Structures are given as structure tokens and as C-alpha cells.
């Protein structure tokens, strides 16, 4: 290994972020990586002897002691979850540097990492709230200049019956839906570069078919090619983050359930509802982990595989999926 201890921390951060970009993280995630690395790096530069501007801090100067001091100052006015996230970012950074033979080892195990409690689920409150939300969206209630109930129901159903994250919804293509009737599935580009395949039960299948049919009527068959974005706005353009969030918020408002949506979990409450109902209806932890695309059951446990049949049985037990069948058929009638 060549001696690279004199390499600039700031330059190596740039190389790390370029390498991470190949995994297609969201812009928000990339910004968080950069912020955590440069913020702690700046604190380390200020605590160095003598103090240095960040541009002059070399990777070889980052001893375990200096990193501990920098993280101690970083943690002074931040929540444990923020400190834990920054620790993970720095651990990934040094893992990259070791692989690139820039440094001989990773000093992060010598830097204390706070224990953070697992986040508590934040599902929609109220036993029948998901069904009320779907029914309201299907009726196209409220003052809308260009109502599109089929699209709104499809968005809500993908989150409530497949547990998709916001970024996963936006990444879907028409061709992400595959398989024959009765064996339909959706291929999801999951968080952290972990793809997964989810079973699509008849209710969700009918909702998505109704949405795509309505899209053909609006914009023509050319808009539903396999590589076309699955979710589009009222002009036929790909839905973006802000537009998707606004769509879900407007569905809450029209259904009159805003007070049943937990603070800080607006769209994510739909995903949490999916997982909570799976657990209530008898799904095991391994099935829930697999269906939601989590890396592990908890930070100390390894990833557990389950069969496709078990996944389909878990989704089939979801009450919201069963309700969708009657909803779509009532629309058709």
C-alpha cells in the first residue's frame, strides 16, 4: 500500500461520494453523507494541534483520539439518532478508504457509538381509517380541477398494500409490474441498493390495471411503455417527490382524516400501516422484514430469507388488500 496519509480529507470525501453515487442513493441521502462527513471533519480540524482549516486536514491526522473528541463535540447538541447516523457514515467512509488502500485500518470501532432505540411504528390511527381513505380517493371527493381517482387510489394502494417508500414509488416503471394474472408481482428498487420482488394480490392488481387503463384514455397508449414511469401527474409527467407528498396530503384532507395521521410520518404512515396490519393478521417478523425491504430484523440480527410463498400468504392476509377487490368492482359497476 502506498502512503496516502497526506491526502486531503475533503478530496477523499469527494471520492467517497462519487463511489457511493453508483448505488443510486437519493439526493437527500448524498447530501446527508456530505454534511455528516464535513461537519465532523471541520470539528476535527478545529480540535487538531495546532487547529487547521478543513482544507488542510490530512487523513493521516485523524487518529482515534481526535475522532473521539470531534464526535463528542458533535454529539453535544444533537439527538442520539443523528450521532448514530453520522457514525455510520464515517464507518462507511473508512471502510471505503481501507478497500482503496488509502488507510491501513478503520478507527471507528474505537469511537463510541450511541445506542438509539428502534423507531416506533406510526400507522394511521383508527381501525377503518385506511378503508375510509381509499373509499374517499375512489369517489374523487373534494374540489379538484382535474380529478383522477384511479391514479390517487393506485398511489395509496401501493403504499398500503405493498409498503413502498416514497423513493421506491417514484422509481417504479410500468415494466416493474410483471407476471401472469394470479401471479402478479412488482419489482422494487429498494433502499441501499437492495432490490426486492413483492407479490401483487388481486385487489391491488385490479387497482393498478384500472389506473393504467385510465392513463391510456388520458394520454394514449404510448405513455404506458415498459420503461415509462408508473406514477405520473395530471399532465402525464413523472411524479416527483413534492408532487407525491402533496397528492397524499390532499387525499388525507379530502377524506377528513388529517387528525389520524401521526406527526412526522405523512406518507410513511401508509407503509407503517401495511407492516402493522401484517403483524396483526399473523405475519412473522421475517416475512415483515422481507416485504418491507429492511436489511435486518434489528441492528444486531442478520438478514433472514423467506420464500416467495410465505410472502404471498402474508400479503394475502392483509385486510386492506381484501377491501380493494370490492372497491374496484364497485367503481366498475
UniProtKB/TrEMBL annotation:
Q: Does the keyword Transferase apply?
A: no
Q: Which Gene3D superfamilies match?
A: 1.10.150.130, Intergrase catalytic core
Record-annotated Core-binding (CB) domain positions: 7-98
Domain (Tyr recombinase) spans 119-316
UniProtKB keywords: DNA recombination, DNA-binding
* Biological processes, Gene Ontology terms: DNA integration; DNA recombination
The record, for InterPro entries, names: CB, DNA_brk_join_enz, Integrase-like_cat_sf, Integrase_catalytic, Integrase_recombinase_N, Tyrosine_recombinase_XerCD
User: Which residues does the annotated region (Disordered) include?
Assistant: 108-128
**Molecular function terms in GO for this entry?**
DNA binding
> What PROSITE patterns does UniProt report for this protein, alphabetically?
CB, TYR_RECOMBINASE
| Entry keyword DNA-binding | yes
User: From which domain of life does this come?
Assistant: Bacteria
Homology family: Belongs to the 'phage' integrase family.
> PANTHER family from the xrefs?
INTEGRASE_RECOMBINASE PROTEIN MJ0367-RELATED (PTHR30349:SF41), PHAGE INTEGRASE-RELATED (PTHR30349)
* Protein's recorded name: Integrase
